[in-house]
Amino acid sequence: MKAVILCCIAILFAGVATWAQTLKPSTQLALDTGNRYYYQKSFPEEGKEKKALYQKGKTWVNTNLDPSDNYFMVDDAGNDSIRTMAYITIDDLPEVQNQVISFKVLLRFYNGSVDMIATGFWYSAMNKTNGDQIDQPLGHLKGLNPATQGSVIFAVDKKFRIMIQRLQHALD
């Protein structure tokens, strides 16, 4: 009897946790008026020269973003900016597999600071139920149940938070 009660409680808490997860918007990314995700942050680096920050940023991009061979633009002459496409992979979920989030990253370098802007977050995956390919903006996850949508955003937040921590560490 105790085991049945404990099992019921565990199922109830799992359901509440899943429900709560679906209601939370991204904690790392912001939504614009078109319901598209973006990220914008300035990293102050007092006393550091633009060229040194640029070199650290370039190393971080190559190490952490798996930059696209088709879209990787650097400004080695002026040390002003780096643009690339980046990719985040997410573990399979019960409803979807082969999940990839792609997005554009712009790093701007100044004496004493670095600005990062990430836009164009795009979600790609395969629906396990019917085999359909899903390709849509991350802010418009249609065709996925609310629990899966919440799980996708939660996973993106987790990976993005780690990515930003690595950038901050690389710049320090």
From TrEMBL:
This is DUF4468 domain-containing protein. Residues 1-19 form the signal peptide. The keyword Signal applies. Keywords: Signal. It comes from Taibaiella soli.
